[in-house]
Each structure stands twice: as C-alpha cells, then as structure tokens.
Design brief:
single chain, little secondary structure, two-stranded antiparallel ribbon, 2 strands
Length: 51
C-alpha cells in the first residue's frame, strides 16, 4: 500500500525519470529555475540499475 502525502504547491508536472550519466534526471520547465521543488516517486523502480 502506498503512502499518502499532502503537499501545498503551485503546479504539478507528470514526467518520467531518464538516465543521465551515473544518475538520473527529470526535466522541468525553464520557468521553474531557481524555485524549490519536491519529487515524489509514484511507482516501483524497474530494477535496471543498482543505486
């Protein structure tokens, strides 16, 4: 069963985490530069890489 989180915010973006070197990233709009954001994982990892 998933945890439930309640976050006050301005905008929600659905996206996919993509590989980036030895890490991963999520692309957000340029207008979000310099803002505070929170990332919530909503599915289990596919098991492709170890942490």
């Amino acid at each position: 069963m998933a945890n439930r989180f309640e976050i006050d915010g301005e905008e929600v973006l659905d996206g996919e985490v993509k590989p980036f070197g030895n890490s991963a990233h999520v692309t957000v709009p340029k207008r979000w530069r310099g803002t505070d954001v929170k990332v919530v994982r909503t599915s289990e990892p596919d098991g492709g890489d170890d942490e």
